[in-house]
């Protein structure tokens, strides 16, 4: 009986040990699986400046009118191709024809009067030689003849003006191009009293376009003439277009206390896919990095709930060179010194499943990754980018095999944009 009890006691003790071991294993597994991680990679990165802009033709001509009138003939419409000198529109010419006829009649009358006054002045000169009229009468005759001649010249100038205005009723294309805008219609009255109204907008060559991109003040120093630009438009989401920076305009644009500068990007459009007014999402290529250590951006935005600046200053990140807490003024990786501000703290998943802080410095960045320039990180390290929700499986980026796949892996691991980087 005692032997049976002893066996049951050993069996119960063994069950308790197994249960404790299982509980501890599950606890450790849960502890290690509470974070979402991404892998530090070694690969290539292109540093760039992102900006949005509007696509427009390189040269655009606004065609207007210098005279008022009613549109009598409309010969072109949107998207029509025109040649230089082609008649685009005709205004009702009757008012200007009547003014010209009246001016011509006035000129004929003044010429007759001027001829009579010239003859009177010639007779007065002969009479003055014979002393039949006074000097005053002679000078009066000459002045009258000169005034009549001046009136004739004034009437001739008025005729030139009236003929010019009559010619302005016919609107011709100043250059060859494409009509991209028409702002009048048949029968519409055009008033040109104080300013020249725009009737048509012509684009000279739609195979040569340009992007007018707004560059933030903080990024304008990175944009140079001749720089390569890649961009896409919403109409062709999967297609990448190429361009070159042609000009960075010095005129600043301030909106709501935000200063931007306009960069002009020259773009070839041989197939006509790019249309005027499209919005371009441009990436200005600043510098290429090859074989560098890449940190997922999401790692810089995650901190433990109890992690504060005071705790970080008190404990300090682990010093990879020994000596306890790191001394920012002395820690170096090669020639790069780690010091505040400008450095960031990221957390690596430790062997015991805990979040271990690492102090690093980052350099160039794109939408997904940043270049690690100093600090104790190496390729293959698992950095924490977030916490798992209850019931969510552990998410971790796989091993790096191709640098081209790094963006897809970062998205799967939850990488995002770093704050303040």
Number of helices in the DSSP assignment: 5
Which percent range fits the helix content? Answer: 25-40%
> Could you give the order of strands across the largest sheet?
2-11-14-13-12-15
- Poorly predicted runs of 5 or more residues: 28-32, 317-338, 397-421
SS class: alpha+beta
Proportion of beta-strand residues: 35-45%
| Named CATH topology of the largest domain | conserved putative lor/sdh protein from methanococcus maripaludis s2 fold
* Distance separating the two termini: 75 Å
The CATH class of the largest domain: Mainly Beta
From N to C, what is the helix and strand string?
Answer: HEEEEEEHHEEEEEEEEEHEEEEEEH
Radius of gyration from the CA trace?
A: 42 Å
**Total tally of structural domains:** 4
* Main beta-sheet annotation: 6 strands, antiparallel, barrel
Going by CATH, the architecture of the largest domain would be: Beta Barrel
Please tally the β strands and state the result.
21
Shape descriptor reads: rod-shaped
Average pLDDT for all residues: 82
């Amino acid at each position: 009986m005692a032997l049976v009890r002893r066996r049951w006691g050993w069996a119960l003790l063994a069950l308790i040990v197994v249960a404790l071991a299982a509980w501890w294993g599950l606890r450790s597994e849960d502890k290690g699986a509470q974070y979402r991680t991404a892998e530090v990679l070694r690969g290539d990165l292109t540093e760039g400046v992102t900006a949005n802009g509007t696509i427009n033709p390189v040269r655009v001509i606004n065609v207007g009118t210098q005279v008022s009138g009613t549109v009598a003939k409309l010969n072109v419409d949107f998207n029509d191709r025109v040649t230089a000198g082609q008649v685009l529109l005709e205004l009702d010419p009757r008012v200007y024809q009547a003014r010209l006829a009246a001016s011509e009649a006035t000129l004929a009358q003044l010429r007759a009067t001027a001829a009579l006054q010239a003859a009177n002045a010639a007779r007065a000169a002969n009479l003055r030689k014979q002393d039949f009229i006074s000097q005053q009468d002679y000078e009066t005759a000459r002045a009258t003849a000169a005034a009549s001649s001046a009136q004739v010249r004034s009437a001739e100038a008025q005729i030139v003006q009236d003929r010019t205005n009559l010619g302005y009723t016919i609107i011709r294309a100043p250059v060859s191009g494409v009509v991209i805008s028409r702002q009048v219609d048949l029968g519409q009255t055009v008033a040109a009293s104080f300013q020249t109204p725009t009737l048509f907008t012509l684009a000279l060559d739609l195979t040569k376009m340009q992007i007018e991109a707004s560059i933030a003040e903080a990024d304008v120093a990175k944009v140079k003439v001749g720089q390569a630009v890649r961009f896409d438009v919403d109409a062709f989401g999967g297609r990448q277009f190429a361009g070159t920076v042609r000009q960075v305009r010095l005129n600043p644009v301030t909106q709501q206390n935000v200063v931007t500068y306009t960069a002009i990007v020259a773009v070839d459009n041989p197939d006509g896919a790019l249309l005027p007014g499209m919005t371009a999402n441009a990436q200005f290529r600043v510098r290429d990095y090859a074989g560098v250590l890449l940190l997922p951006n999401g790692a810089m935005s995650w901190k433990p709930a109890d992690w504060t600046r005071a705790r970080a200053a008190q404990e300090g990140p682990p010093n990879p060179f020994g000596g306890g807490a790191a001394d920012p003024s002395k820690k170096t990786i090669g020639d790069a010194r780690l010091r505040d501000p400008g450095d960031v703290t990221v957390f690596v998943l430790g062997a015991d499943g805990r979040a271990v802080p690492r102090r690093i410095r980052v350099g160039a960045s794109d939408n997904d990754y940043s270049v690690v320039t100093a600090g104790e990180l190496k390729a293959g390290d698992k950095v924490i980018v977030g916490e798992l929700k209850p019931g969510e499986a552990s998410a971790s980026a796989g091993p790096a095999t191709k640098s081209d796949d790094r963006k897809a892996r970062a998205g799967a691991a939850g990488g995002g944009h770093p704050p303040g980087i």
